[in-house]
Amino acid sequence: MSQVQSPLIGITGGLSVNKMGSQVCDVGQAYIFAIQKAGGIPVMIPTGLGEEALAALLPRLDGIMLTGGGDLDPIHYGGEMHPRVYGICPQRDTLETSLLRNALDEHKPILAICRGIQVLNVTLGGSLYEHIEDCVTHALKHDYYPDYPRDKLTHTVSITCGSKLDEIIALDEIRVNSLHHQGIFRVAKGLKATGFAPDGLVEAVEVNNTSFGLGVQWHPECLPDDPCSQALFKAFVEACQQDGQ
Ligand code: MN
């Protein structure tokens, strides 16, 4: 009898400088907890890993999760530098773009959170608002950071009927946290927008023609007590489990 093994989930992170002045690769603990709680084993994919190593690593992973972080360099989507654009990390842009291309080619399950949904959209040819407040008329406030609790529910997301998100959450509308100042402008061709804030901003996308390819603009990992957000991780890890068998 074959034993069912927990799926290995590759998680991307960022680069920062610790108190000792050393540069470190980091992944937020909340992402790690969320994957573990859903039954997966998180595996950190360090920023700076080259193409060859990535190609060797990917077949051993059952799924990929892209996490939140600083902004993508607007050069990747033909955007303009804006004074509020922050935290650009060229190594991370390179790694995540390359990882996503390969993961999409191999139909690996993908969950892309916050910065992740933006990387997903840009990798597939879409574009972003460099700063929502200045780019979208009558936009809601979406940047509830850093002076707010990360689990503060701030706006609703309406979910497209019949979408994967609808299948997972089974509600027309949910309340989410919102910790982003950028957002999706032009949705990439290979994606379908399936979640929207009341101001029309895209809050969720799905990759066409794949078993599990989901991007969300909110931070479900910061909502450990919210059944809808936990259902997302559960569904993702289950998809990874099936992929690995
Ligand atoms: Mn939002």
Written overview of the protein:
The chain is an alpha/beta fold. It has a single domain (8-244), classed as Class I glutamine amidotransferase (GATase) domain (Rossmann fold, 3-Layer(aba) Sandwich), CATH 3.40.50. It has seven helices and 13 strands. The strands form three sheets. A nine-stranded mixed sheet has the order 4-1-5-6-13-12-11-8-9, sandwiched between helices. 42% of the residues are buried. Bound molecules: manganese (II) ion. The site of manganese (II) ion has 7 residues, from loops.
Characteristics of this structure?
13 strands; globular; two-stranded antiparallel sheet; 7 helices; 245 residues; nine-stranded mixed sheet; binds manganese (II) ion; Rossmann fold; alpha/beta
Architecture blueprint of SSEs:
Layout: E1 8-12, E2 14-17, E3 23-26, H1 29-37, E4 41-45, H2 51-57, E5 63-66, H3 90-105, E6 110-113, H4 115-123, E7 128-129, H5 132-135, E8 155-159, H6 164-169, E9 173-176, E10 183-184, E11 191-196, E12 202-207, E13 213-216, H7 227-244
Bound molecules: manganese (II) ion.
